[in-house]
């Protein structure tokens, strides 16, 4: 890939956004590469979780403004850049975002499309699209509102003003705030922990939590119950519960 650096270590697929000259502005090529890499890790048996990170100054400063500036509505509709973004949501393994510096516009939306967010103390989260004469388009009005509530989301989306990592943590947008020096290490530790979990249960649990934000309570509870019952058809469920009763560590096989 041209705009990513990719590696695998100890069950974790690591993806680093790399377009530092423009603060990791997400052009279509970069998003396509990212989606392909996420899907390829999703298929790879040796990978249990994914770590997504950016650079020291920016996780990503948004969609590439230069690329969109001249587009007409008809062109945007037919190019449909968000079709690629929708594929991120369907990645079944958990994705941990490690956010350093700016996560703005599409960058904030990308972080929110991940399952856990770790941020450095200097990280900033915002939806500045309003000041470009547009609005968030890759989930910013929906995911942000569900994460931080209406009051906060409305203010962020209408004013375009970013919030600090500390504020994002207090609002429930992110999981951890850590010093920049240990961000990668802490996020990787979490990704490794997730990679050690029983793979089938992990995927279904992720999906069920996602559904909570997507559908109403009754349908969500129903969906959750069905997945729970289904897990009793896996060997990992038998092993996990057996090991608990025998006071030993379980050995999960993804079966
Ligand atoms: C294209 C970008 C960019 C972006 C930064 N750059 N963000 N290029 N698209 N989103 C480029 C700058 O033009 C500049 O290029 C270089 O990166 C460094 O940026 P500076 O502005 O010089 O840095 P700084 O003064 O430190 O300011 C950092 C910043 C600012 C506050 C993050 O760059 C900024 O406001 N960026 C735009 C943020 C934004 O509006 N994002 C929303 C995009 S719309 P040169 O060549 O001059 O060095 C969006 C829609 C979502 O995301 C839809 C999803 C598909």
- The count of strands amounts to 10
What is the subunit organization of this protein? single chain
The gross shape turns out to be globular
Strand arrangement within the widest β-sheet reads 1-2-3-5-7-10
Mean pLDDT: 94
Strand content: 15-25%
Q: Which ions, cofactors or small ligands are bound in this entry?
A: hexanoyl-coenzyme A
Helix percent band? 40-55%
Structural class: alpha/beta
Q: Taking Cα atoms only, what radius of gyration do you get, to the nearest Å?
A: 19 Å
Give me the number of helical elements.
12
N-to-C series of helices and strands: EEHEEHHHEEHEEHHEHEHHHH
Flag low-confidence runs: none
Q: How far do the termini sit from each other?
A: 33 Å
Question: Biggest β-sheet, characterized?
Answer: 6 strands, mixed
Protein name: Short chain enoyl-CoA hydratase
InterPro entries: ClpP/crotonase-like_dom_sf, Enoyl-CoA_hyd/isom_CS, Enoyl-CoA_hydra/iso, Enoyl-CoA_hydra_C
GO molecular function: hydro-lyase activity
Organism: Melghirimyces profundicolus
């Amino acid at each position: 890939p041209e705009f990513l650096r990719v590696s695998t270590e100890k069950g974790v697929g690591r993806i680093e956004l790399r377009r530092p000259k423009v603060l990791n502005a997400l052009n279509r090529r970069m998003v396509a590469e990212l989606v392909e890499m996420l899907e390829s890790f999703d298929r790879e048996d040796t990978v249990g979780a994914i770590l997504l990170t950016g650079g020291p100054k920016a996780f990503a400063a948004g969609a590439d403004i230069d690329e969109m500036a001249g587009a007409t509505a008809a062109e945007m509709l037919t190019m449909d850049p968000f079709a690629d973004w929708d594929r991120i949501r369907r990645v079944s393994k958990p994705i941990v975002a490690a956010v350093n510096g700016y996560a703005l516009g599409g960058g904030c939306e990308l972080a929110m499309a991940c399952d856990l967010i770790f941020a450095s103390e200097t990280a900033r989260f915002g939806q500045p699209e309003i000041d470009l004469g547009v609005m968030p388009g890759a989930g910013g009005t929906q995911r942000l509102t569900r994460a931080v509530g209406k009051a906060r989301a409305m203010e962020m989306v209408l004013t375009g003003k970013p919030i600090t990592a500390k504020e994002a943590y207090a609002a429930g947008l992110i999981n951890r705030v850590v010093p920049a020096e240990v961000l990668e290490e802490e996020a990787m530790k979490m990704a490794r922990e997730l990679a050690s979990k029983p793979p089938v249960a992990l995927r279904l649990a992720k999906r069920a939590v996602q559904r909570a934000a997507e559908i109403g309570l009754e349908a969500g509870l129903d969906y959750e119950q069905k997945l729970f019952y289904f897990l009793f058809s896996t060997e990992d469920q038998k092993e996990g519960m057996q090991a608990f009763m025998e006071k030993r560590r379980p050995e999960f096989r993804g079966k």
